[in-house]
Amino acid sequence: MTTAQRWARTVREQLGHGRFLPLGGPLDGVWITERAARNVLLTAFDEVRGAWAGTLRVGPAEEGDVREPAVPAPPSGLPPGPLRVTADFAATAARPLPETADRLRGALAETAGRLGLTVTEVDLRATDLLDPSDGGRPGAGTADGGPAAGGEEAAPHGGAAGAVGEEAAEGDGAAGAATGRAETAGSDASERGTGGSARRPGTPPGTGESASAGGPEGPASDEERVAGAVLGVAGADRLTGTLGRAVHLSEPPPGQAALARRHVRVELAVGADHPPLEVALRVRAAVSDALADHPTVAVLVTAVG
After folding, report:
1. CA–CA separation, 143 vs 125, rounded Å?
2. Does domain 187-304 have CATH number 3.50.7.10?
3. What is the per-residue pLDDT for 45?
4. pTM of this structure
5. Of 84, 87, 168, 169, which is closest to residue 127 (Cα–Cα)?
6. Closest CA to 285 of 277, 294, 276, 293
7. Helices (DSSP H) in 82-240: which residue ranges?
8. Where are the chain's structural domains?
9. Domain 34-151 indexed as CATH 3.40.190.10
10. Cα 213 to Cα 216: distance, rounded to the nearest angstrom
11. pLDDT tens for residues 47-81?
12. Which of 33, 41, 166, 268 has the fewest CB within 10 Å, making it most exposed?
């Protein structure tokens, strides 16, 4: 594979993850990919009988207090502030559409709250009225009658439709993904990272991991200490590498104040039974404590479950 082909593939993968959405508030330093958030939000359709998901997206709300994050945001990361969920759905006529929409709106808001997303607006559009006598399931297309996103059939109760093969994130998502790749590809000697993904095969978090203790060749590096600290947190399932590196360390730019600290960006997947924001906050604390200079830390959640 040529360099150009690798670059193109990486950009496509990053675009598929969409933008990074803020979890929690400006002091929390946590983001989640649109794809990971969307996959969880689509499970809200399981709670509303007779409704099926079409496309679903998450972006900034039209109004609200947008704040500057306490730590550097990732490439294409939205600043902390209110968010809006927009979704299409199909439903049967077993109950009035406004009632179904109200139930969906409540289920989506509750699911977003469990994730840690600050969702203040939920916009829904009914695109198809289904016949209960036919089982009330969409056919081989999406709710609006076109082909399902990515060629998938619309799935009942928030399944594959809208969760797999969605269009790349709009607006600054594309530019952000390219920027993220350029950052990792053009790293200099002051930026070091651990690429790929890592997990303990068959071992519980905090055991059997050599990353925090070092190996026979010598003491552990800072990257290994960070990886060990992450995998020692309950609910941190594995390290990932959406932006090219699972652990990314960067020094303060030259000329900054003497008190400026290093910054660590960590990418991970969270177990399905754990609140992503709570896990990420514990990871931030563990990573900061794992290094002697107690750097600032940003956590990127790239998958849930």
Report:
1. 10
2. no
3. 96
4. 0.72
5. 87
6. 294
7. 97-115, 172-185, 222-231
8. 34-151, 187-304
9. no
10. 10
11. 999 999 999 999 999 988 899 999 999 998 999 99
12. 166
